[in-house]
Amino acid sequence: MTKIVACIDGMGALSEAVCDTAAWASAQLQAPLSLLHVLDRREFPTQDEAPLSGTIGLGAREALLEELAELDAKRAKLAREQGRVMLAAALERAEQDGAFQPSTLQRHDDFVTTLQELQSDTRLLVLGKGSQGDALGVHIEPTVRALHRPILLTDKALVNPKRFLLAFDGSATSRKALQMVADSSLLKGAACSLVIVGPSTFDTRKELEGAEKQLTDAGFDVSAELLAGEADEVLLEQLVTQKADLLVMGAYGHSRIRQLLVGSTTSTLIRRTNTPLLLLR
């Protein structure tokens, strides 16, 4: 796991935010940055893949088939050229941001399949989290479920966060997330608000104390709270109360307390939070 992979799709504020965030992570971790643009073959099929014979009916003239194939080829070529322009602009911005060894990569394939093929060499994946109609937006949940790599979702530039909120519950998923935060240099220097949402029992209080000590020993300034309520509502409220720049949590885990870090909570927070979200598997 060596690279920061940032998915670039379009030119504008969202792609700039992804680029700036990925450049910061790359510099912070001293990991090479790969700026990726995927031309989805379902939208832009190659000439051999285009299902022309089934779309124009029997008795179609050969000339019409050839013309349709040429149009598809031209459309795909224009999309590739547009992608290269986007990547060139992103590369220039990443270099200005101080990214570590930035480079570009363009693929013509299924989006999630491409990321799965690259994940063995991926240390952190950065995705833009735009509106529901955003091109990458439709890929977010399938990507999070398919990949077993840290994924940072953002619709704003995240650079040198001052405070992050870490959702914890003592499950295997959240313990691994806690260990990853403690071991990584990504968030060093930021204060941590550590939160468990669940019943106030002896076991949960011990879980909170142990997690707080682990982060404190790793050099973090930690404030820890055990709170009652619905996990997603409590976390959304705490992001505002704590003025956190980032929410960190395990993705699609199965909680021992069964109120935190379950799949539905992950999906809800992906949709509802306006704060950048770091999902750890």
List keywords for this structure.
10 strands, ten-stranded mixed β-sheet, Rossmann fold, 281 residues
Q: Mind explaining what this structure looks like?
A:
Helix 4 links the parallel strand 4 (122-128) and strand 5. The protein is α/β, with parallel strands linked by helices. The protein is built from eight helices and ten strands. Strands 3-2-1-4-5-10-9-6-7-8 form a ten-stranded mixed sheet, sandwiched between helices. It is elongated and about 75 Å long. The chain has two domains: 3-43 and 79-154, Rossmann fold; 163-280, 3-Layer(aba) Sandwich (Rossmann fold), CATH 3.40.50. The two termini are 14 Å apart. 42% of the residues lie in helices and 20% in strands. Mean pLDDT is 85; it is low at 254-262. Helix 1 crosses helix 2 (62-97).
The topology string of helices and strands comes to EHEHEHEHEEHEHEHEHE
| Arithmetic mean of pLDDT | 85
CA(first)-CA(last) distance: 14 Å
Please identify, by name, the CATH architecture of the largest domain. Answer: 3-Layer(aba) Sandwich
- Tally the structural domains: 2
Q: What level of helicity do the residues show?
A: 40-55%
Largest β-sheet summary: 10 strands, mixed
Q: Low-confidence segments, ≥5 residues, pLDDT <50?
A: 254-262
* Count of DSSP-assigned helices: 8
Arrangement of strands in the largest sheet: 3-2-1-4-5-10-9-6-7-8
Content-based structural category:
alpha/beta
- DSSP strand count: 10
Tell me the strand percentage band: 15-25%
| The CATH superfamily title of the largest domain | HUPs
